[in-house]
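We examine the record.

___
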Amino acid sequence: MPLNSVNTNTGAMVALQSLNRTSDELSATQKRISTGYRVADARDDGAAYAVAERIRGDMAATTSANQQLGGVKGLLDVTQAALDKVSTTLQSLKTIAVKLADGTLTADQRTQYQATAKELTSNIKAFIQDASYNGLNILDDANATTIKVVSNGSGTYYSFDSFSALNQVYNAVSGAQAWSAGAANSALTSGGAIGKAITSTLTQLNNFGSYSNYIDSQINYNKSILDAQESGLGALVDADMAKESARLQALQIRQQLGTQALGIANSAPQSLLSLFKG
């Protein structure tokens, strides 16, 4: 190929190829800076993008599980609050039962204490029936069913049992308003109505406390998992902004130089005109 040709300008072709490569690199760098990602889509790095999408799916699932666990925590907190009130009220009922067990009470005194006992048992029933959260009451469950809760993004279940508090607590003491001295005395024994109701209540307080502690631990564990996943995802796809900033400046200078080089190469054939001047 002739070195001095007006049809083929090798210098211009080389300069143009170099300028195009610089423009492509500049576009990629600008994309990283504008999005903050080294891998914004599959065109940047298909394998890394596929891994990132899988991690994002895992994170979304774990976040969803934690949201559900937050609702369960609210349910258990309401349940525990109700049981605390039931326990306190049973202690008050026990005090009244001691008075009702006294055979020296007058008829008027017994009537007054029985009225107090009725009020206390009514409160116990109300506490149980009002222990609802998001439409669910795990104290007022006649069948004491098993509750299954999704505990993580993999769909693993954590199970715990509801409690038939009306049957095992309220029904045991609901007749307190009519207790005679003998009936009240019997209710106060370790195997009596009040003793059984208190034991059942305290047992369930312990159980629901354990359930709540597990939920708290699982929520915190899921948060730790999310932090680790987010850190790993960032290392995989995030752009190093300091590095990209320095690269942007270098590429801009290269682009300017490439433009100048192309201009020089394009003007080279003009020098051939001097060969034809007379």
